[in-house]
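Name: Nitrile hydratase
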Amino acid sequence: MAAALAADTPIPRDAEGPIFAEPWQAQAFALVVALQNKGVFSADEWAQALGAEIREALAAGGCRDGSDYYERWCEALEHLLIAKGLASHTSVDALAASWARAAEATPHGKPIRLENDPLRPAGPTAIA
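Structure predicted for Nitrile hydratase:
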């Protein structure tokens, strides 16, 4: 199924397959493939979600060179998970804010971890 996703999706690629400018792009790609393989959503649902995000971004004057492709990828995943009831706008916004605070609190050159968020409650269920 991952091969079908890669073949049917107009992602940045070279002769050997998808290319990623940053590690997070590969992680986002892998997450979508894993969720699709688990049946969370179909290839058609994914294509519709991603296509909608790309069309919306282009209509709003987004990058036409594809440099924001994986940002659209993440937006599509977020909206698809919300539409399926697996996440909420509130939980996504809270998690994004926590990552931003963690990034601000992380010394330069160190990995950004949610544990670095100074406002994150202690414990495994800190962000649901």
